Amino acid sequence: MKTNTPLWRRKAVYQVYPRSFKDSNGDGIGDINGIISKLPYLADLGIGIIWLSPCYKSPKMDLGYDISDYLSIDPDYGTMDDFDNLVKEADRLGIKVVMDLVVNHTSDEHPWFVESKKKDSLYRDYYIWRDGKGDNPPNNWTSQFSGPAWDYDPDTKQWYLHLYSKKQPDLNWHNPKVLEEVEKILRFYLDKGVYGFRCDVINQIYKESLEDGKGHAQNGRGVEHYLMKDGNHRILRTLYEDVFSHYDCVVIGETYNVDVPNGIRFLENHELDMFFQFDHVNVDRHPSQIFALPFSAKKFKGILYKWQTSVSWNANYMENHDQPRSVERFGDKGKLYDLSAKALAMLNFTLRGTPFIFEGQEIGMRVYPGFDARKSKDVSCLSIYDIAHKSFHLPNFIAQKIAGLHNRDDSRLPLSWDSGDNAGFSTCRDTWLPVHPNHKDGYNVEDQSKDPESILNFYKKLIRIREGEMSLLEGSFEPLSTKGGLFAYRRRYQDEECLFLLNLTKRGCCLPAYLRHVNGRVLLSTYHDSDPSDMRRLRPYEAILIKLN
Ligand code: GLC
Ligand code: CA
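That is the input. Now the predicted structure with alpha-D-glucopyranose docked in place:
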């Protein structure tokens, strides 16, 4: 198949969370040499791009999303030589490397911030320092990790803004020096052969004003003053013109609470190549984020269809390092677990856009059973627990429940490579987070590689099928009208067409009359005997991809 489609539209992306992927030196922490050792596995799976969560030098209070030196690698993960080697080895196997770009904030240990604590320093204005209102912070904004978004510095008697933890001070994007510094970082990595960036919380870097926020939210009060403002769009456009347009690369936005008009603007104005929306992963969360809601396949479908039909290209994902594992949320926790994992995989790969896999998703990794929120390694979970328990005096078990909903340790367990000691992740017993006990029950890479019916081998087939079908790669997305948890859509490119049917529920469901006799060839199905030419019902989690004649 000849095509001019850019690589990032054709290939599946695999997110590597370096700390949890593979440990090469026995300290219980994943590292770059570990990643290099598993590149053949990723190549065999059919991955074209890896997105590497941060491995820059960092005190790791937010596990790397708090960078203290953008131009060096954290010793936990290796050296710059190791990193160069990773890019080179990946390239040899036909895999591109995308870095995580975290520039809403730095670590408070970054030399810029250390300098900026001196009132007369040239770096003061790299961050957002303001006088308080009497004894109170400059405004009423709250951090995304809960609690006030400002911290007081007694030496200079001013406050600095942090939309995340107080060890993550926000950069001041009104200062042109900040833009210059970031452009230098981008060129440094692009010149090394890195294929682009996943840009962390990139739709909130520009604070238009510092007026009080309106909401009562315990976290994120003030967003109306910094979410997707004109200045934000202008900066992204400038980065594109100054830097990205000069390289063959991809720019992926993590765009917290993005809406359709801004999403369209990001793409049409060439600010981002694609972006992550959050609506579908919030489907089972109350807007307050304080408790979970039951999953509704119908609502899920509505959200996905909305994005599919509103913007020209989507970054399609079910999981990442901030979200609990998907099958237990959107599929079946019980005996239909594997079946529903495959059904969700087919959904993610047949939507229009670039499919993302978070490490471990391809073997159906689960959330760790019974984590104690108080012992979490996740700063956001700990901070929510503290606020709930200490500030709101909620009893421990309720505080734990609320914080537990946000415990990002859940998806950050070491990847289970085999059924042996420490799941083959490390030779060290004391891995930084425990391995999942189900690595002994077939939920590991080695066992699943050998089993033709495994989730892993299903992903492998799916990746190849998508790559070989122009209608799946570049075709239109045309939803058909169906009820409840039944999905049906067509993907069409010139005279080629695929139809995708999915029952995302644990009960059988009736097909509408017009879908009962479909003339085509099954490319893949979660059951072996799906026969679209004569079919009245779909079984639980039955998903069928049909190439129409
Ligand atoms: C993004 C990252 C998350 C991090 C936060 C602050 O949402 O995905 O892990 O904690 O930004 O950098
Ligand atoms: Ca290690």
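The longest strand covers residues 486-493.
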